[in-house]
């Protein structure tokens, strides 16, 4: 269950820097229109994350592929992917690592192309016992394809049947990895064409490694489906946190000049969630000179590194706290003979963490700085399914409020074009990228 508390964004708590509840509720029509438009996109099959979570056969395909991979001597899954192709799996690995896990089985993620780090990762594995899994929605991602060539070379030198150590999770029909798989009989799972990488936590790209790690992906999808159905079947402000959250973020950005959204979970279970949510938010909404900038933090750690800035720095931030009600395990604090700390005696460590969060909320409010809190009752596959879907739909709704398309990424594509040209790929014609590169290369370096 997910609870949403927004009292510290209201004028009654933070004065003129806050909102009236009536301002939030005044967006009811716009929020309903956003929900209706997303439903139309869903009906036209232009967006797929709403329906992939209830797709018949998805679990069977994933479990069948895992049984095939681990039927022999394979004991390690090495996953290569960039952005959404890896962040979802890393988030669930961090959050659920204490829930499942199959003894003797390991899952490794490579989410960058740092050669030193890749060397260190490869030095720690037995190639003959490893399945190398390449995740790319487009099947052409330059970083993933480059890593594939490196691994292919290693496999050809190390094992007799290199093809049995490769699998791809990618587009069903097009792209380099798909062609290579079809031509060489490589094991594949599909990512639907109408689901972008940052929404792919509900596809095989994340769910396959999650299943391999021992997590109950059926329970995860059930949480997402139930949250989807409840949010769509309830009134906009009827215990429907995602719409209130989207409205609050939108109003503080448009009316209060709060152009930074701090994503601050008060639990280490969700440390990687903050990175996943940052990418989902930034890549979906950062267009047309619009959108707050998402900044990840972790409480209580960042009370000692960022809170000073949030408390007395520029009035440009909205703080979102994510709190775990039941941590699963706890400690009693016993100061013993250290009498000056008697007030801690018998208190739980989780109680200290909660009171630190409350203390920060109070301190921010006194300084007229807005924050809201999302509370999760426990960490398991079901609640992570709920949380994931809530964030994806909230970002989509916020995109509708901002009147931008939350499902494309033109800025990322521009960066890719420059990378391809710098690596030597010939341009079909001398377009803007080529002429701009020539202009910028003509400016002398300034190394001092």
Structural account:
The protein has 18 helices and ten strands. The protein has 448 residues and is an alpha/beta fold. Strands 1-10-9-7-8 form a five-stranded mixed beta sheet, sandwiched between helices. Strand 4 (130-136), helix 8 (142-158) and strand 5 form a beta-alpha-beta unit. The termini are far apart.
Q: How do the helices and strands line up, and which of them pair or pack?
A:
Blueprint: E1 2-5, H1 11-14, H2 21-25, H3 28-43, H4 49-52, H5 58-69, E2 76-80, H6 84-96, E3 106-110, H7 115-123, E4 130-136, H8 142-158, E5 166-171, H9 176-184, E6 187-191, H10 204-212, H11 217-233, H12 241-256, E7 260-265, H13 271-285, E8 293-296, H14 307-312, E9 317-324, H15 349-366, E10 371-376, H16 381-402, H17 410-422, H18 432-441
Parallel strand pairs: 2-3, 2-4, 4-5, 5-6, 7-8, 7-9, 9-10
Antiparallel strand pairs: 1-10
Distance between the termini: 56 Å
**Strand arrangement, major sheet:** 1-10-9-7-8
Number of strands: 10
Coarse morphology: globular
Q: Please identify the structural class as seen in this structure.
A: alpha/beta
Instruction: Describe the oligomeric state of these chains in a short phrase.
Output: single chain
Please write the string of helix (H) and strand (E) elements: EHHHHHEHEHEHEHEHHHEHEHEHEHHH
Percent helix range: 40-55%
- Low-pLDDT segments: none
Radius of gyration: 24 Å
What percentage of amino acids are in beta strands?
Answer: 5-15%
Mean pLDDT: 92
Largest sheet: 5 strands, mixed
Our count of helices gives: 18
